Amino acid sequence: MAAVAIVLLALLAVAWVLENQVAPAPPAGSPSAYRVRVTRQGRELAAYDIAALQAIGMKKVVVQGGSEEGPPLLDVLRKAGVTKFDSLTLLGMGQRDGGRLELSVSDVGPETVLDIAKRGTVKVAGPSIPREKRVRDLTEIQVN
Amino acid sequence: MTVIALVAVMVLVAKTVLRMPIKVSGHAGVLWIAALMVGRSAVRYPIAATLMGLIGGTLVAVFQPSDSGSLFTVLKYVLPGLTLDLLIPLVGGRFDHVVPAMIAGGAAHATKVVVDLAQGIVAGISGPLLYAGITVSLALHIAFGALGGLIAAKIVGVLVRAQVPQMADVRDRDGST
Questions:
Q1: Among A72, B37, B64, B146, which one has the highest count of C-beta atoms within 10 angstroms of its own C-beta?
Q2: Per-residue buried b or exposed e for A47-69, using 16+ beta carbons within 10 Å of the residue's own CB
Q3: Mapping DSSP to helix (H, G, I), strand (E, B) and coil, where does residue B92 land?
Q4: Based on the domain organization, do A84 and A112 belong to the same domain?
Q5: Do A85 and A15 have their domain in common?
Q6: Does the distance separating the beta carbons of A60 and B138 come in below 8 Å?
Q7: Average pLDDT for residues A121-136, to the nearest whole number?
Q8: Does domain B2-163 have CATH number 1.10.1760.20?
Q9: How far apart are CA B37 and CA B33, in angstroms?
Q10: Nearest CA-CA distance, residue B82 and chain A, Å
């Protein structure tokens, strides 16, 4: 069992090396850092990294049995200067889901949040968004 | 089979009961790892813990679906069970000693993080997004798994002292020391 303990410690060391040396996160504000853009008719209204999203204000909601926490989508839009919209198109990296979700005004309420995931990206979650339709690793919110 | 099914249900119950809204990685493992280890100590079938993980993982995938999808959800419980099946011969057939049980529990629970990583690779994620937070997640899973091992060791110890038949090992049954 001592060997197993040594293996576990080695695993932790490998994890640290992978996270910090092999593939460290780019510094905030750098072009390659993760951002969520808000656009309207092709024009960028705002771009938020994780820290900027957290600064908007965090809200915790329970949807479909799971706890989601992040800035409310309406607050994110308001901060970008969007007070009225007909619909939203949410685009993600498309690596773990379809990468695209259309939301009407009625689909977006105070409980719709951009949940900040442990991997450093956000996903959209809300009472009217079924789990299988969620967009993870969100990159752009197109305002229509 | 009764014990296997019972432990599988306890896996689901542990995931439900210990659902903390504070997003601490792996906290539910304290209970279900302990359940797997106690169950494996009672059932001497070589792949008993793997079976418990398979059935328990299936129940979790059905009743508590997550973003992981069914396959990876089930794997997150099968691999820890398999790890326990592989490690139990090293500790004399039951997890009644604290330190070995904690190490085994930590190792078993750590395999969940391996499945997470594999899922990310299959999804085509790479670079910083793949490894973000992995060190803390792994450390927490090992810690909570070790805590589960500690609980299991205490429970198995009580059951052995109470001379529960399923906990007796071959040496005990022979009457030899």
A1: B37
A2: ebbbebbeebeebebebeebebb
A3: coil
A4: yes
A5: no
A6: no
A7: 87
A8: yes
A9: 6
A10: 15
Highest mean pLDDT among B1-5, B25-29, B151-155: B151-155
What b/e sequence results for B11-37 when a residue is b if at least 16 CB atoms lie within 10 Å of its CB, and e otherwise?
bbebbeeeeeeeeebbbbbbbbbbbbb
Query: Which residues of A fall within a CB distance of 8 Å from B15?
Result: none
Q: Does residue A40 share a domain with residue A19?
A: no
A110 and A45 in a common domain: yes
Looking at residue B147, its pLDDT comes to 94
Q: Cα dihedral angle (B5, B6, B8, B10), rounded to 10 degrees?
A: 170
pLDDT per position as a tens digit, A2-49: 888 888 889 889 888 888 877 776 666 666 678 899 999 999 999 998
Say if residue A70 is in the same domain as residue A6: no
Indicate if A45 and A68 belong to the same structural domain.
Answer: yes
ipTM of this complex prediction, to 2 decimal places:
0.72
Contact A16 B135 (CB under 8 A): yes
Closest CA to B147 of B32, B3, B8: B32
Average pLDDT, chain A: 87
Domain that holds residue A104: 34-143
Candidates A34, A113, A115, A118, partner chain B, best to mutate (most B CBs within 10 A): A118
Q: How many other CB atoms sit within 10 Å of the CB of residue B134?
A: 22
B1 in reach of chain A (CB within 8 A): no
Q: Tell me the pLDDT band of B27, cut-offs 50, 70 and 90.
A: confident
Rounded to two decimals, the pTM is 0.77
Same domain, A20 and A58: no
Cβ contact, residue pair B134, A15, below 8 Å: yes
Residue B131 and residue A22: Cβ atoms within 8 Å?
yes
The arithmetic mean of pLDDT across residues B43-53, rounded, is 91
State how many domains chain A has. 2
Residue A44: CATH number of its domain? 3.90.420.10
What residue spans define the domains of chain B? 2-163
Statement to judge: residues A80 and A132 lie in one domain:
yes
- Over residues B57-72, the pLDDT tens digits come to 998 888 877 766 788 8
